[in-house]
Specification:
Two copies of one chain form a homodimer. Chain A has 417 residues and is of the alpha/beta class. Chain A is built from 14 helices and 14 strands. Chain A has helices at 36-41, 52-69, 83-94, 108-119, 137-147, 168-175, 198-201, 227-234, 247-254, 268-284, 286-306, 333-344, 371-387, 396-407; strands at residues 25-26, 75-79, 100-105, 123-128, 151-155, 157-158, 163-164, 182-186, 205-207, 221-225, 322-326, 346-347, 349-350, 359-363. In chain A, the strands form four sheets. In chain A, strands 2-10-9-8-5-3-4 form a seven-stranded mixed β-sheet, sandwiched between helices. In chain A, strands 11-14-13 form a three-stranded antiparallel β-sheet, covered by helices on one side. In chain A, strand 13 (349-350) and strand 14 form a beta hairpin. In chain A, helix 5 (137-147) packs parallel to helix 6, helix 11 (286-306) packs parallel to helix 13 (371-387) and helix 11 runs antiparallel to helix 14 (396-407). The longest helix of chain A has 21 residues, at 286-306. Chain A is globular and about 65 Å long.
């Protein structure tokens, strides 16, 4: 009956118990708490990628992404990969072998960009700044000019340090350079919280992740390619060195072309999740969403000072989404982090690279940016520092945050569940 | 209060209605019907990728994948991308620029392998066969020998044609060649249904997709790298041309190394889905699962003959998972496909490439390989062909399938929900 003999050697199936993951409060650098509406959206019936109903959903996702990116770029879609895959998609398309590339490095993700750019044959000039600082625009622009850069890339929101990179001066300066470098911006931890202004600034390629301030699970990377980027890619002498992440192939699949060209099998649950997450962003509106992030960040910042420590990133350049909290003298970064997980079910991130052992990384993004989460974090930190004999009043952090909320406007209503 | 002015230009959020996708019977080439237990698993609380509980889940996924691949390879994990990304991961790691590569091309996916291999600098020798046939092992081996191939790749289950490629003779023959080419096998549409014997055959790299016979949503690509592949990759003079899909970086993230090296943010819902899908495979057991696929394929094949047509792929080399049904003279491939979707909610696939307009592609894989689905498909096809005046008895297909079931053993119980 069968076309081939069924032989499976002597394989024994492993005995694996059903999943039973605990519920965590996800206040690390990501993943962040997924909105309950997003969880429910994932349970909708799976559609094939050629189904007319699915193609409508794809078009809506692009529309919503254009709104959050601040762009009219037709080529705007989610890369079928995590934010790391989005970074690779941006750079592997933008950089042709031999291209001079300038990259700002003030944290882990700038460094990762350098590693990728070198893999793709870029001749990289690094513009370094201490972790927690931002890249001085004038130094970045000078390096771009001196190297004849064809591509210039920075990280808008450096998840490893909590620093927010100003973009406007760099964006404007790059446009005046004779080589007209493509401007590539990593918005993984800013999109959906901080303003991202692709068209107003003239950003050529921007990408993000689904699991940060958009509050969907990871697995998709929103990206947008502007007309200058598309022209550059189309004119490459050597083809793009990736098939999976090739902009033209992806655009034929996700774009307005009819019939769509088959490229990959879109993950319906992830697309549904992103669709619902973006609808929630649109309902709240970007200005209200930014204000909410700013308010909770500010209250948390004051709470941290109430705990007797401070944020690491320089004032005036701090992310609202990701806070680097300096570990007070006498405290043990890893031990406190572990106790938060074990005793409170709270996940936070450890310091990386230059900040290893020196900071805790605390994310308050998207659905996670709520007053109750600020209170929980400060209460837990306060208790642990108090137990370690490093803080007289365990409630000092929460009290400081509460004063901040009392002084400001009341917290805007969260999106209804 | 905020670190930067909140400006969003004059953006207006698009008005997008909530998702309401219809339920489809997914009998195309993929995605396939997701098992209800898998849908429920996706709703479990999201964990961070550094959470000890998540790392346990990752280890279990690797164990289960080793079982279905038939391997003890330590480097066995899901690539954070669709099956297309798995193909790219296999080839971008295996092929160094300038390497002679031999690829069997008897359908769309063999052709895609050629496109990718050329992107990665491979000097490709194609071994072509008509769509629906298999690659003759002796021709493939002769081409590998003549070209001094460093990498040799075939598609085990050609989703575009329904053909199952015999692997043993090629696998054995390649081992005798002086250049000892790496043997790369695309198992996207075979893993979890047809036997895949990585260690017994000496396959060096095999990859698959989550949304075929494993019955999870798409978005992850199971892959396994054997010791010869890892040695070859580690010894490359030029580094792997991808960061996202770099085997060594992915293995440091997903493998047994402690501490794990950060690489990307794993998509917890997709990992949960794959974990549950693989547990279901282990519960049923691979031999019983293969037998179920074979039985339903055979009944469907006889039903197709009852409809007055036949399968396109050559007898003896037919997939159990994906059937290419010849469109009878007088029938309109696209119109029937569209009526199945509109009137029955059934998704099937269209013929591609050499088979465009000539076949329907009907998937019966994983959870979808059920007697009731065979009956539904044959009933719907029978009715449409009858209405078109191409079939006297609309029930002839179902009747033929029923005779097949009656002659064989009764259908094994499906995995309980």
């Amino acid at each position: 009956m069968a076309d081939a003999a069924v032989t499976f050697g002597d394989r024994t199936p492993p005995q694996v118990a059903p999943l039973n993951p605990p519920e965590r409060s996800l206040f690390g650098p990501g993943p962040t708490p997924v909105h309950p509406r997003v969880m429910r959206a994932m349970a909708a019936p799976v559609l094939g990628h050629l189904d007319p109903d699915f193609q409508q959903i794809m078009a809506e996702v692009s529309d919503l992404l254009r709104y959050v990116f601040g762009t009219t770029n037709p080529v705007t879609f989610p890369v079928p990969a995590t934010g790391t895959g989005g970074m690779e998609a941006a750079l592997v398309n933008a950089i042709a072998p031999g291209d001079p590339v300038v990259i700002g490095v003030n944290g882990y993700f700038g460094n990762r960009m350098v590693q990728m750019a070198e893999k793709f044959g870029g001749q990289v000039t690094r513009v370094d700044a201490p972790w927690g600082e931002v890249i001085p625009p004038e130094r970045f622009l000078a390096a771009a000019r001196a190297s004849g850069a064809r591509v210039a890339a920075v990280v808008h929101a450096e998840t490893s340090t909590g620093a927010l990179q100003p973009l406007a001066e760099i964006a404007h300066g790059l446009r005046d350079l004779p080589e007209a470098p493509l401007f590539v911006v990593d918005c993984v931890t800013s999109l959906g919280a901080h303003p991202v202004e692709v068209d107003a600034l003239g950003i050529d390629i921007a990408y993000s992740g689904s699991q940060k301030a958009l509050s969907a699970p990871s697995g998709l990377s929103p990206i947008t390619f502007g007309p200058r980027a598309i022209e550059r890619i189309a004119g490459r002498a050597r083809p793009v060195g990736s098939w999976y992440l090739d902009e033209a192939l992806l655009a034929s699949y996700w774009g307005d072309a009819r019939p769509r060209a088959y490229h990959h099998t879109a993950s319906a649950p992830l697309v549904y999740a992103l669709h619902e997450a973006l609808r929630i962003v649109a309902e709240e509106g970007l200005p209200a969403r930014a204000e909410r992030h700013a308010r909770n960040h500010e209250a948390f910042r004051r709470g941290v000072e109430g705990l007797g420590t401070e944020l690491h990133a320089r004032e005036g350049h701090r992310l609202w989404t990701l806070n680097t909290v300096r570990v007070p003298a006498g405290a043990d970064m890893a031990a406190t982090q572990r106790r938060l997980l074990d005793e409170y079910g709270i996940e936070i991130g450890a310091g990386m690279g230059e900040l290893a052992g020196k900071v805790w990384r605390v994310g308050l993004m998207g659905y996670g940016s709520q007053r109750r989460n600020v209170a929980l974090l400060l209460a837990a930190f306060g208790e642990l520092l108090h137990e370690d004999g490093l803080l007289a009043d365990a409630g000092a952090g929460v009290a400081a945050a509460n004063r901040a909320y009392a002084q400001g406007a009341k917290e805007p209503a969260l999106v209804a569940d």
